[in-house]
Amino acid sequence: MQTLQVHTLLKESIAEGMSYDAYLSLVATLVAEGKSTSKIPSEEMSLFTKLNYKRMLRLNKTIKIDGRDEEVIASYSKKVTWLVLVESWCGDAAQILPIVYKVAALNKNITLKIILRDENLDVMDLCLTNGARSIPKLLVINEDYEIINDFGPRPEAALKLVDDFREQYGKLTPEFKQFLQLWYNKDRGKNTVKDLLQLMV
Q1: Could you give the domains of the chain?
Q2: CA-CA distance, 179 to 131, in Å (whole number)?
Q3: Residue 24 to residues 30, 52, 143: CA-CA distances in angstroms?
Q4: What is the DSSP string of 133-170?
Q5: Which has the closest alpha carbon to 78: 171, 157, 148, 138?
Q6: Measured between alpha carbons, how far is 189 from 110 in angstroms, rounded to an integer?
Q7: What's the CA gap between 173 and 122, in Å, rounded?
Q8: What does DSSP say about strands 110-116 and 137-141: parallel, antiparallel, or unpaired?
Q9: 52: nearest Cα among 26, 16, 71
Q10: CA pair distance 58, 140, nearest whole angstrom
Q11: In a 3-state reduction of DSSP, which class is residue 31?
């Protein structure tokens, strides 16, 4: 895709993107209707969506940003958009998105917009992870609609856990995925905040 096409695509995606509150409202509606953002109806995806909604609500109340980190975030002076690709059924997105919101809310120069991956595959394909459409994915986009940095689909510490397990066992098991969610709970967002701060250099 040529540069002008990419800039136009990103500009349109930002314009159409949801706020965090709008995304929460969407997920709440899906939960009430027993649905998910998946284009293919699935009871499993609906159950994941319900669980993830509860996770996000809990994290909204419990996540705290360290005072020193707040100072670093507040001092960031570039005007950027954080465009995040997610789906309601994604467990990693539910653990990470509330933290992304808390960090972005501390700096008026950061605009947070959220889009669904499966409705925006052209954007997703600009930022593959090892060739895969892994989410959540955060793109840092400047005022010229250029991608200047990115984050995801997990904080580096969690990525290492996943890579090590996959290298040893070939694929991620349901038991490992449950372990990863427990890791997120114990970490309390610290590694996610640490990696997000690296986007502000």
Answers
A1: 3-200 (3.40.30.10)
A2: 25
A3: 10, 10, 26
A4: --S-EEEEE-TTS-EEEEE-SS-HHHHHHHHHHHHHHS
A5: 148
A6: 19
A7: 29
A8: unpaired
A9: 26
A10: 26
A11: helix
Look up the pTM and report it: 0.95
Q: What is the pLDDT along the chain (201 residues), one digit of tens a residue?
A: 789 899 999 999 999 999 999 999 999 999 999 999 998 989 999 999 999 999 999 999 999 999 999 999 999 999 999 999 999 999 999 999 999 999 999 999 999 999 999 999 999 999 999 899 999 999 999 999 999 999 999 999 999 999 999 999 999 999 999 999 999 999 999 999 999 999 998
CB proximity list for 107: less than 8 A, separation 6 or greater: 73, 74, 76
| Amino acid at position 50, single letter | K
The CA-atom distances, in angstroms, between 151 and each of 137, 162, 192 are 6, 16, 9
CA 114 to centroid of chain Cα atoms: 8
Give the span between the Cα atoms of 67 and 198, in whole angstroms: 17
